[in-house]
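Hi Y.,

Following your request, here is the sequence exactly as I used it, all 424 residues.
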Amino acid sequence: MRFRVAASLAAVAATVLALLAPASASASATSAPGAVPKTVVLDGNRLALTRLLTKAGVPALRSELKTLTTAADGYLTQGPWSVMDKPQTAPSGDKHDYISEAPYWWPTQPLTASNPWGCPYVQKDGVRNPAIDTITDHAERGQLFNAVYDLTLAWYYTGKPAYAQRAALDLRTWFVDPATRMNPSLNYTQFIPCKVDGRGIGIIDFSQQFTDVLDAAAILDTGAPGWTSADRTGLTTWDSQFLTWMQTTKNGADEAAATNNHGSFFDMQEAALALATGQKSLAKTIVQTAETKRLDVQLAADGSQPLELARTTSYHYSNFNLLALTRLAQIGQHLGVDLWHYRTPSGGNLLKSVDFMVPAATGAAAWTYPELNFQAFSANDVIRAAADQGDLTAIRAVPELSAQPGGDIWLLRPAAEQLDPIGS
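Below is the corresponding structure, written out as tokens. Let me know if you'd prefer a different format.
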């Protein structure tokens, strides 16, 4: 049913958007609330059409809008968040630097005055160390990204100013205000006590969800109350500086060289940042290069992802990597690059890899690879993304998917989002 609704939206999009275009083209971004947003992952035209259908009271959208606004209402009284909230300071001595601790590393000795971290540390793949939560940057970053995305979408679909005003405050506090802003770098992410101050692998703290923020900003640019030209300029400057940091530092080079999901997320974030900052040619090159650099390396002929199946949480990581690749494919659609149907020399294909997840996601067959915490719903969004591309296996699977925790808002934000809580 949900796919039929999505297909119907796509079928009437051309007609409705033809009516939208004259008004959108003649109005500025600051004077035309509801105009087509220049998003980098989400399809702005589809969002604009969905907004019209939501305003018209289409029944299929009512429950999703209620789910979205309920979440957004909760964020109206939370935050704003800042890297300045944490009790710790980065090795740089600057509290504006974001820091986070590697999730799967554990102390081997009791914590004492002479050994406050319990060093040396050892790795336990897939087993998260709860002590990392004493550093608040990681958790607050996640809350911020979720809040901004939900608040912005809620404003776009309802027009209620409070949602946009709160999203603007949250973004301004974390990225723009000199007193509270985060430095545009990730030098101290996923550090390991007594071992290393920061690692390129920690860039995934941002890349797994920062594209939501880029899309939210593009939506706010369509005329959101409380979102000023100074805010837009400040965030764009931050984005540009962060992209430069990614491309010119050892941490960035290390993450770009990763062959598994870390490399996929790096490319997704880099391409999105390039597109968001007006560097369309660079963004297109990144997506095109991913055909051979990512898909050829990661996708087997049978649809499996061997690099992710090697993990102790292989179902999670197979879906996690597909999240990055399907979102990268959506970025490619803005640039005229079709990752969805690219076929690797071995016969691998992105849609085939999504299909590989369907039996376990629908309960038709057991997942036979290592998995410490199987959660069937982890595959829901990537399957819906493939269904939107016309993949028959995915289309048939959609009605059989397990319930989405917190409710389903696919029609309002049709792009894969990671829901299960396992770290990276």
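The mean pLDDT is 91.

Thanks again,
Q.
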